[in-house]
Amino acid sequence: MSVCIVYHSETGNTRTVAARVARETGGNLIEVKDLAGYSKAGMYLKGAPKAMRGEKADIEPAVIDVSGYDTIVIGSPVWAFNPTPAINAAVAALQGIEGKRTVVFCTSGGMPGRTLETVQAMLTERGAIVRGAVSFTERDVQKTEMVNALVDLVRPRPVSSV
Q1: CB-based contacts of 155: which residues, under 8 Å, 6+ apart?
Q2: Distance CA 28, CA 23 (A)
Q3: Is residue 160 part of a domain?
Q4: Residue 161: pLDDT band with limits 50, 70, 90
Q5: Which residues span the domain enclosing 24?
Q6: Considering its fold, how many domains does the chain have in total?
Q7: In what helix (H) or strand (E) does residue 31 lie, and over which residues does it extend?
Q8: Which CATH number do you get for residue 10?
Q9: How is 103-156 classified by DSSP, letter by letter?
Q10: What is the dihedral of CA 84, 128, 60, 140, to 10 degrees?
């Protein structure tokens, strides 16, 4: 099983979860950079209104080819109860996502809002098969059981014989 973890992180929480999932699954990490280069204040003053409007950022990498992977994990911070503009753009930039198993996670100060539902809907519109989603608070990021819940969604379920 090959896994690709596509994520955006500004403060490091989403990066921490993505790295732990990669360690547990042997997955490859693709960090999406928002070319706006927000300062801490800029994330709130400029980025959050863009997130609320569902805008897409200019990102690097501009194209993300996931055709060689079995499962794709998408991770986003929560900005104004929504995925970041970088993740909106990343989902649009995915090539080869059709028919792929996907899992979504988000990190927030405590209120994920519509983030998980929004990313799941975007992936479904692209033809991906969403297996589930997990929301992490800042405290949850270090909890092994929370990361394990996400990893359990990533790993394929064994087929039982009857």
Answers
A1: 1, 25
A2: 9
A3: no
A4: low
A5: 3-154
A6: 1
A7: strand 28-31
A8: 3.40.50.360
A9: EEEEEESS--TTHHHHHHHHHHHTT-EEEEEEEEETTGGG-HHHHHHHHHHHSP
A10: 50
Structure tokens at 145: 């059981």
Give, in order, the Cα–Cα distances in Å from 119 to each of 32, 40, 85, 88. 15, 23, 11, 8
Strand partners, 130: 102
Question: Within a domain: residue 162?
Answer: no
Q: Which residue has the higher pLDDT, 3 or 157?
A: 3
The token pair that represents 26 in the structure block: 């042997």
Other beta carbons less than 10 A from residue 93's beta carbon:
19
Partnered with residue 104 across adjacent β-strands are: 74, 133
Give me 86's structure tokens: 């970088």
Could you tell me the two tokens for 31?
A: 């960090």
Domain membership of residue 161 (yes or no) is no
Contact 35, 57 (CB under 8 A): yes
According to the model, what pLDDT value does residue 162 have?
55
Please provide the size of the chain in residues: 162
Identity of residue 83: P
Give domain status of residue 159, yes or no: no
pLDDT digits (tens, 9 = 90+) for 36-63: 988 888 788 889 999 999 999 999 999 9
